[in-house]
Amino acid sequence: MEFSALLTSAGINIAFCALFLSLYSILRKQPHNYSVYFGRRLAEEKFRQQVDYFSFERLLPTAGWIVKAYWCTEEEIRRVAGLDSVVFLRLFIFSIRIFSITCLVCLFGVLPVNYHGQEMNHTYIPEESLNVFTIANMKEGSAMLWVHCVALYVITISACVLLFHEYKYIARKRLAHVTGSPPNPGHFSVLVRSIPKSGNELLDDTIRNFFVNYHGSSYLSHQMIYRKGNLQQFVDNAERAYRKFVRVKLSVFDQNVRSNLNRCGLCGVRASSFQLYRNKFVDAKKSDLSDPEVVEAQKDCPGAIVFFKTRYAAIVASQVLQSSNPMLWVTNLAPEPRDVYWSNLWVPYRQIWLRKIATLAASVAFMFVFIVPVAFVQSMMQLDQLKEMFPNLKGALKMSFCVRVVTGYLPSVVLLLSLYTVPPLMMRFSSFEGSISRSGRKTSACTKILFFNIWNVFFVNVLSGSVLNQLNVLTRPKDMPSMLAELVPKQATFFITYVLTSGWASLCSEILQVYNLVYNFFRKCVFCHQDNPEYAYSFPYQTEVPKVLLFNLLGFAFAIMAPLILPFLLVYFCLGYLVYRNQILNVYYPKYEMGGKLWPVMHNTIVFSLVLMQVIALGVFTIKKSPVATGFTILLLIGTILYSEYCRQRFSRIFHSYSAQDLIELDRDDEQSGRMQDIHQHLLDAYCQTPPGTGGGDNGQVPIEMIMEDPAQEVSDSSQELCDTVQEVSDSIQEHIDDK
Amino acid sequence: MEFSALLTSAGINIAFCALFLSLYSILRKQPHNYSVYFGRRLAEEKFRQQVDYFSFERLLPTAGWIVKAYWCTEEEIRRVAGLDSVVFLRLFIFSIRIFSITCLVCLFGVLPVNYHGQEMNHTYIPEESLNVFTIANMKEGSAMLWVHCVALYVITISACVLLFHEYKYIARKRLAHVTGSPPNPGHFSVLVRSIPKSGNELLDDTIRNFFVNYHGSSYLSHQMIYRKGNLQQFVDNAERAYRKFVRVKLSVFDQNVRSNLNRCGLCGVRASSFQLYRNKFVDAKKSDLSDPEVVEAQKDCPGAIVFFKTRYAAIVASQVLQSSNPMLWVTNLAPEPRDVYWSNLWVPYRQIWLRKIATLAASVAFMFVFIVPVAFVQSMMQLDQLKEMFPNLKGALKMSFCVRVVTGYLPSVVLLLSLYTVPPLMMRFSSFEGSISRSGRKTSACTKILFFNIWNVFFVNVLSGSVLNQLNVLTRPKDMPSMLAELVPKQATFFITYVLTSGWASLCSEILQVYNLVYNFFRKCVFCHQDNPEYAYSFPYQTEVPKVLLFNLLGFAFAIMAPLILPFLLVYFCLGYLVYRNQILNVYYPKYEMGGKLWPVMHNTIVFSLVLMQVIALGVFTIKKSPVATGFTILLLIGTILYSEYCRQRFSRIFHSYSAQDLIELDRDDEQSGRMQDIHQHLLDAYCQTPPGTGGGDNGQVPIEMIMEDPAQEVSDSSQELCDTVQEVSDSIQEHIDDK
């Protein structure tokens, strides 16, 4: 490929991008597309008021959305879209920063050295082959390789400094998020699984006795998880209804007293009276349990959610080994209510380890099986092989148009289509794995897709050759550096076009929301539906994070080898930053919070990319016979690994646990301000179990927020709640009767 | 090597063993050897009463010790030598059981099949080459390979069943040990490291404030760890003296009251009055701290031991993340006092991760560097190479005696001598690693030596060839099975003689205690010292466990390949069981308790050996072209890995932590019986810090036991204690004055 061809390709892609972005700026102004482009805002019901008037301005492309997306503060994004979006955008900020530095260093330092590597007469630059810009153009034993080595040092050190800064910043943000957000029921609740069954006691009593016995001072209550049984559902609903009723009554009563007493010391009374009612109810329920159906249902109970009085007590119960048999009384901190993945709670705990191994095996197997479509694509690109495979197609294959379609267009379509099967499959794997929370499932899928992308997009393409060749590489890890060093520069052209087409195009398709747009168009204009469907999806971290990280990896891997890729990447990151900011602000609706848990994944992948860059450089310096540069690179490699280990020591635990200090402070604040009793009451109703059939999907559950309302609001809410509850109970009764 | 040669070699070794054991049975009856052969009993001072009379019987070899060793119950061994010895002996019991089964299966099933593998005329058996007994004698594609496959299944399944049984048994023993042994100060104490320094507060106050603030209900007291400073030592001693004095006073007072009141409810009063005294003292000490030397000493303090009121509180504090910076307020459950490795407590916590990586790198490097002496030994075995290396030795090398010595004897001496450097070096590595307890250091060294043995004795000898060859194997993991399958049967003869010489001989040298015996002889008979020196060493698990595990590995690796090794191994295990039982009962003195923590290491190594056996079998079946057997072996391999993972899930955590249930029950028992106050008092004096210079060695510290004395004993002890304390304090003052 010549330099001019690359420029042409870039020009075409830039034009397309500009076109799509203009199209977006027009389409977003059309009222019938609001549901596509402002899903989040619609979900928050602030956007409906806009009047549907026509103006000529609606047909003009404008850049207003870019300005809005750019000027929005981070705090605002955190408030509307959660910490995870902030973390995702920080990844872009990091990428922009590090690739600006890399661009500077490599375009003005490494590129001229590569270009003048061989003693040759350079022709007019646009007619130059792209190979003269890569490290393949350097002579063996060239003294100028120290430029590459210095560039390597500059890139690695600045990446490490920036990464450390980001890790620290995000860890601080995470802490502020934990301490600053409203009380989260997940912090007070522990999921207990694998409860031992005793013959002469109901499971419900077993759980109560265990926690009253060993965590008596902090145990509040518990809620069983049922696998099946409508009666159970009914009893549960009735209990919830009763509790709500009690609360409403109390809050009405409370309202009156409170206004007189100004909230001093009365909370205690209120809670204990509530407790009184509750205990009565529990007693009433106990006598109910002589029913054989209830006993049957309890036998199938795979676990319970246990509520504690303080956050600290919950985290202690979740981290300390409960029983001397580690397979019994397994405790984990419960996810927040809207994050619970109910259908996995019904999975018996003793299956989990087996499921994890099976999933791991299946993912690895799938990764390698996927080489088959890649090999098929490669064989499609070679016409001769194709003719052999399908002899009766020979006639059609003689036409030049058909040839062009079959060899040029079809392969990438096949590859793209087979790539589209990956995220749903990996999500299914992650569900099967037995993750108890939606966020855990997403994180797990994200890691799997990341591995898959790095292996199947980067390695398989770099090592392109026969399938056997690729497998052989795995069996000879020692030859990896020199093999990569030889093959990576050759594939530079492919990956530059990959960034242009897959990277830039994916951003355009992301902002246009093509699928939803078309669906909406047909729905409204062809089938004439008038209502606005809601497109409030949660952000697809599991597909977007691996994509961005893959581009990071490409950037680092090619930085020294073929610096021409860097400007295109930098444009991708800048554009991506704006596009995703816009999408996060307008389109996606955060259904649950992962608390920035994806950052360690991102950090580790970037460190891996740095190490990969150094390993490739090591191979290059060995091939080019520059022992000094090799030595310095090994030093850098050791330094990078030590740095990564330090970061793990310093930050990793923050993202997996909460510190006693913070939790105790939070508990104290709540106790001193008297909010604790309110929290305890809300806690008991926080976890609403969806029936087995409906809990699987991502969109199955309406988010429940546990926010302390101001007292004036409470009464009207309560009466509304009461109505709902009555409705619920009557529905349940009706259902129960129908079943009988 | 012929079969008869093997029998001759075995006969010679059996004769030697019999000789050494008889010698032992005579030597142990000589009174001047008591200190060598009854170190533990002497240390417990029960053995001194024996009268030194001469009888002719003393010169006759007897088997009484074998009977005594055999009939001793496990419970007795646990009581005198701790749980670790029991676990070590269980390893022998497991080995004897599994290798009895393996012997049966392989000698009567596999061996005849191997022997009749080729269609050939068999000569008289003793003249047969040993090769006809190995799997190398089987034809390609032989149908009789299913015998090997069935044997593989029988061995693996019985090993898994036995292992599971052992794991369960030892886990139960460990729990019984934890709940049954006297209160351990380590269960109440948490080691806190990396305490943040605040400018306007002394470290002592920082610690107190932190724990009073966040663990107020359970915090009892704390003890700083000082790096240097005699004054600090002095202040500490004074505090300890004061505390002991108070206790003596109280216990005298208590004694009087107690006899009247029969121990009812007075403990509370006693403790609070004690607390009163203590607080006064703390106040007094606080004013002392204006001294700049104290401030200086506190600056260097790397941590503190914090005491809690209950075991549960201590484990909670040790497991929950304390601060939002995981590198600050790092908590670990403290080792028991005699197990603390003081000199490592002075290592700043922020160095630990770096030290661990450095140690790992150094150990791996040493493992590979050790190939050099092995290669040197190999080159010594080849005379031609030797002549080239040392041309001026040509004259000497012509004599046949010299040749025999240089090629036959010297190589193994060189290898043995270089192998002797390994355990001390690995112990040094493990000390450098920063382990806070002696037991942790020993466990870590044990793992390192284990890896080293498996690599340098098994792999390097099997893959014997040039150094480069061995390294190449690592870079081609795929070829490993077939390479092993080809090479392992060839090395059968070498390893059979290895079992005979290294295994049996090591047992004889172990029971004779050659080094101590000679030292003792020179000391008493040549230099005429009359006193009995104490040879009360703690059991060298770090060298013995890897040795036994290596023989296990050899047994499994060769079971199918060359079953002739099995009877010799079985003899080794039976003899070893008796010898080590005897040594544990008589010679070694347990200085600290590891609580059976070595079992998971043993279990994992045995599972690894099983997997290795299967991998080698896989290679053999591939070479012998038996696809069905290959398929079944792969199934077995997957099953073994799943089994190992299940064991990890089921048992592993028990060996690293204590369960809340057990600890709370223990706490309750102690509280209800009123012992808790006594425990708290003992706790404050339990950790006696040795000065930096003397704390390093293994023999530096006299074991302190924390046993609840009966009240009558207490008074006399107390007065003795008081005298000691006064002596201590006056010594300290003297030292302090000398320093000034």
TrEMBL record, chains A, B:
<feature type="transmembrane region" description="Helical">
    <location>
        <begin position="629"/>
        <end position="646"/>
    </location>
</feature>
<protein>
    <recommendedName>
        <fullName>CSC1-like protein RXW8</fullName>
    </recommendedName>
</protein>
<dbReference type="InterPro" id="IPR003864">
    <property type="entry name" value="CSC1/OSCA1-like_7TM"/>
</dbReference>
<feature type="transmembrane region" description="Helical">
    <location>
        <begin position="601"/>
        <end position="623"/>
    </location>
</feature>
<dbReference type="Pfam" id="PF14703">
    <property type="entry name" value="PHM7_cyt"/>
</dbReference>
<feature type="domain" description="CSC1/OSCA1-like cytosolic">
    <location>
        <begin position="187"/>
        <end position="344"/>
    </location>
</feature>
<keyword id="KW-0472">Membrane</keyword>
<feature type="transmembrane region" description="Helical">
    <location>
        <begin position="143"/>
        <end position="164"/>
    </location>
</feature>
<comment type="similarity">
    <text>Belongs to the CSC1 (TC 1.A.17) family.</text>
</comment>
<feature type="transmembrane region" description="Helical">
    <location>
        <begin position="396"/>
        <end position="422"/>
    </location>
</feature>
<keyword id="KW-0812">Transmembrane</keyword>
<feature type="domain" description="CSC1/OSCA1-like N-terminal transmembrane">
    <location>
        <begin position="5"/>
        <end position="166"/>
    </location>
</feature>
<feature type="transmembrane region" description="Helical">
    <location>
        <begin position="357"/>
        <end position="376"/>
    </location>
</feature>
<dbReference type="GO" id="GO:0005227">
    <property type="term" value="F:calcium-activated cation channel activity"/>
</dbReference>
<feature type="transmembrane region" description="Helical">
    <location>
        <begin position="87"/>
        <end position="111"/>
    </location>
</feature>
<dbReference type="Pfam" id="PF02714">
    <property type="entry name" value="RSN1_7TM"/>
</dbReference>
<feature type="transmembrane region" description="Helical">
    <location>
        <begin position="6"/>
        <end position="27"/>
    </location>
</feature>
<dbReference type="Pfam" id="PF13967">
    <property type="entry name" value="RSN1_TM"/>
</dbReference>
<dbReference type="InterPro" id="IPR027815">
    <property type="entry name" value="CSC1/OSCA1-like_cyt"/>
</dbReference>
<keyword id="KW-0406">Ion transport</keyword>
<dbReference type="InterPro" id="IPR032880">
    <property type="entry name" value="CSC1/OSCA1-like_N"/>
</dbReference>
<dbReference type="GO" id="GO:0005886">
    <property type="term" value="C:plasma membrane"/>
</dbReference>
<feature type="transmembrane region" description="Helical">
    <location>
        <begin position="549"/>
        <end position="580"/>
    </location>
</feature>
<keyword id="KW-0407">Ion channel</keyword>
<keyword id="KW-1133">Transmembrane helix</keyword>
<feature type="domain" description="CSC1/OSCA1-like 7TM region">
    <location>
        <begin position="355"/>
        <end position="621"/>
    </location>
</feature>
<feature type="transmembrane region" description="Helical">
    <location>
        <begin position="449"/>
        <end position="468"/>
    </location>
</feature>
<dbReference type="InterPro" id="IPR045122">
    <property type="entry name" value="Csc1-like"/>
</dbReference>
<keyword id="KW-0813">Transport</keyword>
